[in-house]
Amino acid sequence: MVQYVYEFAEGNRDMADLLGGKGANLAEMTRLGLPVPPGFTVTTDACRAFLATGTEPDGLADEIADCLGVLERSAGRRLGQPDDPLLLSVRSGARFSMPGMMETILDIGLTDDSVRGLAKVSGSERFAWDSYRRLLQMFGSTVMGVDPALFEAALTRLKDSLNYRDDLHLDAPDLARLVETYKNLISGETGKDFPQDPTEQLRRSIRAVFESWNGQRARLYRRREHISDTLGTAVNVQRMVFGNLGPDSGSGVAFTRDPATGRRRPYGDYLPNAQGEDVVAGIRNTVPLTDLERLDPTSYAQLRDHLEALEGHYRDLCDVEFTIERGTLWMLQTRVGKRTAEAAFAIAAGLAEEGLITHDEALARVSGDEAARLMFPRFDTAAVGEALAHGIPASPGAAVGAAVFDCAEAVRRAAAGEKVVLVRQETTPDDLPGMVAAQAVLTSRGGKTSHAAVVARGMGKVCVCGAEDLVIDPPGRRCTTAGGVTIEEGMVISVDGSTGTLYAGVAPLVDSEVMRYFETGERSGELVDAVARALDRADAVRRLGVRANADTPEDAARARRFGAEGIGLCRTEHMFLGDRRKLVEAMILAHTDADRVRALDALLPLQRQDFIGILEAMDGLPVTIRLLDPPLHEFLPDRTELSVRIATAEAQGNPPSAHDAELLAAVNRMHEENPMLGLRGVRLGLVAPGLTAMQVRALAEAIVERKRAGGDPRAEIMVPLIDAVEELRLVREEVDETLAAVSEASGMAVRCPVGTMIELPRAALTAGQIAQEAAFFSFGTNDLTQTTWGYSRDDVEAAFFSAYLDKGIFKVSPFETIDPEGVGRLVRIAVAEGRAARPDLKVGVCGEHGGDPASVHFFHAADLDYVSCSPFRVPVARLEAGRAAL
Ligand code: ADP
Ligand code: MG
Ligand code: MG
Fold first, then answer.
1. Is 457 among the domain residues?
2. Are both 574 and 467 inside the same structural domain?
3. Catalytic-labelled residue, pool 451, 633, 849, 857
4. Is residue 331 located within the same domain as residue 386?
5. Whether the CB of 323 sits within 6 Å of ligand 1
6. Among 776, 769, 767, 686, which residue's Cα sits nearest to residue 734?
7. Where substrate is bound, by residue (predicted)?
C-alpha cells in the first residue's frame, strides 16, 4: 500500500519529490537533531490523487489520524483540547520553492472553547484572541473563500473607531470583538459557520492547500518558472510555536552567509514579539539579526550553531526561518538559499577554500549567466535609494533614462538626444521602434519569455518585465508604484536589468571590476579572485576549445585577452563597408574583364592589410577567415530609394546620369525576393569571377608578410553556405591555384587548410561527402536554424515568437538556445558522418549559440572540438564548457 503520510523523523532531504522541498528539509533538520516543532508531511502523491479525483485517496484520513495521535501523545494534549489546546499549522510545500504562491494556515485547533483554554495556559488573553482572529482570517479566506480584503476592512474599521494607528494597540476585548465580527462575516458571506470541530478544521485546511496548487497565482508562477503543473504540493502539518508571547519571544529569518555578497557573516532580520508571518508582511520594522545577540544571547548562540551545522551539512548557503517562544529557539524552515551572481562566485570560492566542497563542485555552483551579469556596469548597491518596484530581471545591465509611456514619445525624445526608458504594460511588435530608441524597457506584465524580454535580450537592451505592482496608465502618461509613488512622463528612473529593480532618479553606477579584470588581467579583489578561480578550473577541465568571432584586430585582441584560443569566424564582408563600398560597386558594375580586374586590384591591398592586422593580433593561434558571404546587392544602394530618386529627378526634367542608370539596372538585375536563400556564400564566389582569388591572394600575401616579420600566422579558409561537395571542390581548386601562385612569387610555401561551414540541411546530410574536401567543419547554427525551421530570423522574432513561447511550442527561441532535436540532430549526423569519412576532421560552431550556456552543453555532448562566440561571451563559454565537462 502507498504511504501517504510521513512523520518528520521518517523523511530526509533526498525525498523532495514526495515530501516537497519544505517537508524534506524539515525532515532533514529533525534527523540532524535540530529543534523542529514535531509534525508530519502529507505527500505530493496524496495531492495528485486528490486533484485527479476531487476526493482524498483511501487510507489518507486514517494515516493522518495516526500521525495526529502520535503528535498528541508526545505533546500530552489533544488538538483543540478546550482547557489546553494543541494547535497546528498546515503549510504548503512543493518540490520547487514557490514563495508565497500557495497557502499556509496557522493556529488550527482554536474554537470558541479552546480560545479560553489557551488564554489561561498562556497567561495572555490578548495572545489567545489574536491567534483566534488570525485563524478566522486565514481559514475564512483560504478554506471558505471569503475575500481577504473584507477581513482587512473590518480590522481597519475597528481601529478607526477606536482611533488606533497600530494593531498592537488592540487589547483582548477589542480582539474578542473582532473575532465576533469575523465569524459573522464568514457566515454572512458563505452561509456557513466557522467549524468548531478541530479535526474538521484540519481536514479542510489540508484540502485547501491541495487546491491552492491550482490557484491562479500558483499557475502563473509555474508557467513563468517552467515548473510542471503535474507535480502537486505536499502539506506539512506541524505543532504551532509562538513568537508573539511577549518580549522574550520573536521570529526571524537568517542566512548562513550574506546572500548579496557571499561574505561569511551572520545575516538576517529579527522581529521581537511577532509571528513569522509578520516578518514577511513587513507590518513592523525588523531589526538586524545581530541585535538578537543582545536581546537573547542564549538563543543567538544556539542559532549560530544551527546555522553552522546546516551549512556544514548542506555544504552550501542555507537560509532559515526561526521562532523563539519564551526563550526557546525553534527552527521552522531551511533550504539552500538564493543568492546574487556576486555571492554565487564568492560562496563557491569560499566553500572550496574551506575544504567543504571540491573545486569541481565550486565550478558546478556558478554559471555563465552569472558571470555575464558581473560583466556589466551595475548600480552601486550601497548608494541607490529605496526600490520603487521589482519585476523579473529579463535582460541584464543598468540603464538610466526619462520614463516614457509610448513608442512615439520614446522615438521623439531619443531623436532629440534624450535617454529614455520605455514603460509599457507589455510590448508588441508595434513597440519595436520605441524599444530600439530606449535605454531600457520596463513592463508590468509578462515573464522572461514575453515579447519585451525576448526582443530586448536580442538587442542587448536592459529589460525588466512583469513588475506587477506598477499600475501603468498610458493615456495619463504615468504609472504608480505599490508604495503610491507616481512616475510622470519625463521623470528620470533607473532600471537594473540584472536584479529586476526600479529606482527613482539617477542611481550611481560602478564599473564592473570583473570586466576590468578581463581587460587588464589585474587579479585583485575578492570577487575578481573568485571569478578567476572558477575560470581557471573550467579551463583545466574543459574539453571544448573556445574561440571568438572577430572581424577587426581590436576585437581579435580583446577576444584574446578574454581567453579566446583563436578566431572561429572572421567575416570579411565587414571589411567591404564604408568607403570601400564604392570599390565593390565598381566591381559589380564592371563591363569588361579589365574593369573588373582593376576594381579587384584596388580591393586587394586593403583586404591584405585587414588580414595582416588580425593575424598579428592572433599570432600563433588559428584564425578562420570566411570568404564573402552576403548577397552582393547589399553593397549597392537600396532599390526603392534609388528608383524614387531617379523618378523624382526625371519628373523635374532631369534625366538620370549614365552611372545612376547603370546602377539602377544592376540593382534591378540583382534584386532578390529571398536574399537569405539567394545568390550568396559560395554561390557568389562561383559566379563572380576573380572574387575568391582576390580574397585568397590577399590572405596568402598577408601570411607571407607576417612570416617575414617573424610572426606565426595560422590562417584557415572557410567557405560559407555549401550545399554540395562539388561546390567545395571547385572553390578549393581556385584556392590551391592562388596559394601556389603566391608561394611561387614569394618563394615561401604558403599552406592554409580549407574547410566549410555546415549551415544548410543538405550539407549536414551529405557531410560524409563534404568531409572528403574539407579540413574542418564549422556549424553556422544561425543559418542552420533558419533553414531547418524554415524561419526568416529577421521576420519571425518580432512577428510571432512571443506567441509561440506563450503557447509552449518552444520554451526558448531556437535562435537563442540550439534546438537539440531538430537542428541538433543535423549537427550530430554531420559530426558522425564527417568524422567517419575523415577521422582528423576538426569540428566547431560559429553561430551565436556558441556563447549560449545551454547550447555549449549540447556542443560538448555532441563532441565538437570548439565553440566560437562574440568576444564578450568568451568567458561565459569557457565557464560553461568547463561545467559541461564535469
Ligand atoms: P511559505 O512557504 O510561504 O514561506 P510557510 O509554510 O513557511 O509559508 O509559512 C508561513 C509562515 O508561517 C512562516 O513565516 C512561519 O514563520 C509561520 N509558521 C508556519 N508554521 C509554523 C509553526 N508551526 N509555528 C509557528 N509559525 C509557523
Ligand atoms: Mg516559509
Ligand atoms: Mg551563415
1. yes
2. no
3. 451
4. no
5. yes
6. 686
7. 571, 626, 759, 780-783
